[in-house]
Design a protein that fits this description.
The protein is built from nine helices and 15 strands. The strands form three sheets. The protein has a seven-stranded antiparallel β-sheet. A six-stranded antiparallel β-sheet has the order 1-5-6-9-10-13, with helices on one face. Helix 5 crosses helix 8. The longest helix is centred in the last third of the chain and has 19 residues.
């Protein structure tokens, strides 16, 4: 029988949501899930599953869209009412996990349409906003297969949740491209543009795909915008990842520090799932990024100038310097139509 590890040990990080951690030969994983308002978070739990004999796994995150899916969808046994966004994120997570465990026998989009169809939509009102969606969520997932000195990585996403590769030589490199009309990473931070494609039950959606080979060792990171959407520049998400890694003694402490860090700066629910692939242990992982962490801290200090005009110039210079490596592995833009 194929052995499947769905996730590691779960634990509460005091005041900062829930964390997960996992460690096996050649694979370490960390998960972080936090709520902006206790009991009202709409991100699903981060996903990590690893099939041991086949040396393959998947990481993923799912951000229920509380604006377009704010209407109540169900009532739990304890009387708690949950929104369509809350339900949608968790249904899509279950669909992605079942698709992986069953060997990807159909397209992921087909599987997600099936699972979303299990929850009937409420009756439509006479006036329905064009922005209203049924069970809406974003998704970013990375399916990896380990082989020799490289990992085959298949990245799947919809909306503005993101997947990244993190390596000693390249730093944090985006593997997805947000489904928004604005394509500049810094302007996406400043503007928070509307999404042009999300997973939902009552409108057409697409699942974008990007396949690439990554040299081992490397780290795959999936995160919702609560992690990367409230930093000063895209470079500073990497700064947070590496500074917490540098200060941690093991996977659990890394997860705890990430949870505390993100709750200190985010304005949203935040979830993250990462898998460190090809490292002998946490000490080797930490040592691999020690120099990079210090370099990032020196080049991109977290204390920014106070004046607005200087702030804009500082952000632009930081982004111009960081952008080439950050975008090197991104998929090509999709032309309209």
């Amino acid at each position: 029988m194929t052995e499947v590890r769905v996730r590691g040990v779960a634990a509460g990080a005091p005041g900062a949501g829930t964390i997960w951690h996992y460690h096996d030969e050649g694979v370490m994983a960390v998960g972080v899930w936090t709520e902006r308002l206790d009991g009202r978070g709409e991100d699903a739990e981060p996903l990590f599953a690893h099939r041991v004999p086949a040396a393959e796994g998947i990481v993923g995150v799912f951000d229920g869209l509380g604006g377009s899916g704010a209407g109540a969808a169900c009532e739990l046994r304890d009387g708690t009412r949950r929104s369509g966004a809350w339900v949608g994120a968790r249904l899509v997570r279950s669909g992605v996990l079942s698709w992986f465990l069953e060997g990807e026998t159909e397209s992921l989009r087909t599987r997600l349409v099936e699972v979303l169809a299990d929850v009937p939509a409420p009756p439509r009102g006479k006036i329905v906003s064009r922005m209203r969606r049924w069970l809406p969520t974003t998704m970013a997932a990375a399916h990896y297969r380990l082989g020799g000195e490289q990992a085959e990585c298949r990245v799947l996403w919809a909306g503005d949740s993101r997947a990244y590769a993190l390596s000693r030589g390249g730093g944090l490199q985006a593997l997805t491209r947000d489904h928004t009309d604005e394509t500049d990473g810094l302007q996406q931070l400043v503007q928070d543009p509307p999404m042009t494609n999300v997973i939902c039950a009552d409108q057409e959606f697409t699942i974008a795909e990007h396949v690439l080979l990554l040299p081992l060792p490397c780290v795959l990171v999936c995160a919702t915008d609560g992690f990367f959407g409230y930093v000063e520049t895209p470079a500073h998400f990497e700064c947070h990842l590496l500074s917490t890694l540098r200060a941690a003694a093991d996977e659990r402490e890394w997860a705890e520090r990430l949870a505390r860090q993100v709750t200190g700066y985010t304005g949203d629910d935040a979830s993250l799932s990462l898998a460190a692939l090809g490292y002998a242990g946490f000490a080797e992982l930490k040592e691999a990024f020690a120099a990079r962490s210090l370099e990032m801290e020196a080049r991109y200090p977290l204390v920014r100038p106070a004046e607005d005009a200087v702030d804009r110039e500082w952000r632009a210079r930081t982004w111009e310097d960081y952008r080439p490596d950050y975008e090197r592995l991104m998929p090509a833009p999709v032309e309209p139509g």
